[in-house]
Structure formats: C-alpha cells, structure tokens
Write a structure and sequence with these properties.
Largest sheet: 4 strands, antiparallel
Distance between the termini: 6 Å
Order of helices and strands: EEEEEEEEEEEEEEEH
Strand order of the largest sheet: 4-5-6-7
Structural class: mainly beta
Strand content: 35-45%
C-alpha cells in the first residue's frame, strides 16, 4: 500500500519464516521491518496522517482463524490494538475516526457465488464511540472495503459476478460502479 503522500510502500513479506509488516521508500533501498510477532501480520492500509500502518493479525484473538486490527508506527515501536473485536480487511475513513471492514474472510478460497455463513458483509466501526454498524446485508460476498472520500467502495457478487460497488455516504442504496473507474476511485486505489 502506498503511503498517503506517495513516498513509501507498506507491504507484507516473509523474509524470516513469518509474515510481517515492512515499509520501503518508493525509490528503493533497504526495507524496514515494523513487526516481530510470531503470528502472521497482514498490511491493510495507512492511517490518513501517514504516521502508522493498519494491519490484521491473529496474535491475540485466541483463534488463529480470526484476526484483529492493529496499527504500528512507521517510525517503529509497539503495535496498538484497535477496539474492533474481529476483522480481516479494512480501510480508514479520510478523517481517521472510522473504519470500513469485513469481520470474516474467505479470500483465497474457491467458493464462487457462495451463499452461507462465511459470506462477508461490510461494517463500519466508529473508533471514537466504540460502535459498529452493518453497512451491507447481502447473502453473498461483500468484501475488500476501501474508503474514498465520503463513499465506501467494495467488491460484491450480488449479480453473480464479482464487481465493484459503492455505498454512498448520504444513505442512498448500494450502486454498481460503471465499468470505467472514476478518477476518485483510481486515486484511492493508488494510495
């Protein structure tokens, strides 16, 4: 993931027998390792101010199958656990006060058009008020949320083909994104 200012890239790598969080300058150089825990750490996003990286890990969840969210400073130091009970994929709101996230994941599975108990929905967690709200309620897949401006974009198979959708902040219904990606989405994907 590119940092908000585009100067660094945060990524997950397995250089020493375990997936950890690393950061590197976009011009190259020696990567800096930020996590050292025995459980896998997976990069998800940057905080909007570019000072920390959001990642998922099962390091304290009690079950390896379920991850929780943490941030780790880019300058180094201990990771801070977010108050979200469980989560797999997430993106910060532009003001950093909320995150859009999936509670569970089926990534890397071969279950196309799956409708069942492991189907993901998009949730929003308010970090200031410690409250969560379910944003989507589809029997299939709604995953990989990305906050761009006031809208939350996510992948969904609600038309039986995985496509890009968006949830508009003012409460309008979920709408299919046209096949051409708007400039605001392209900018969000690049960060």
């Amino acid at each position: 993931r590119f940092s908000p200012d585009g100067s660094q890239i945060a990524y997950t790598a397995n250089y020493n027998g375990n997936n950890d969080v690393y950061v590197i300058n976009v011009n190259g150089g020696i990567p800096k390792r930020l996590t050292y825990h025995g459980m896998n750490d997976r990069v998800l996003d940057w905080t909007p101010d570019g000072q920390a990286i959001l990642f998922a890990s099962s390091r304290e969840s009690g079950r390896q199958r379920y991850s929780q969210f943490y941030t780790v400073p880019v300058s180094g130091g201990p990771a801070t656990k977010l108050p979200v009970p469980y989560g797999e994929y997430a993106s910060f709101s532009p003001d950093g006060k909320k995150i859009a996230y999936n509670r569970i994941s089926r990534e890397f599975r071969t279950w196309k058009r799956y409708r069942g108990g492991r189907a993901q929905d998009v949730w929003v967690y308010d970090l200031e008020n410690s409250a969560s709200e379910q944003l989507t309620d589809h029997p299939g897949t709604d995953n990989q949320p990305v906050w761009v401006g006031d809208d939350i974009f996510f992948a969904s198979d609600r038309d039986y083909t995985l496509n890009l959708y968006r949830h508009v902040a003012d409460g309008e219904p979920v709408a299919v994104v046209p096949h051409t990606i708007p400039d605001t989405v392209a900018a969000g994907v690049q960060r």
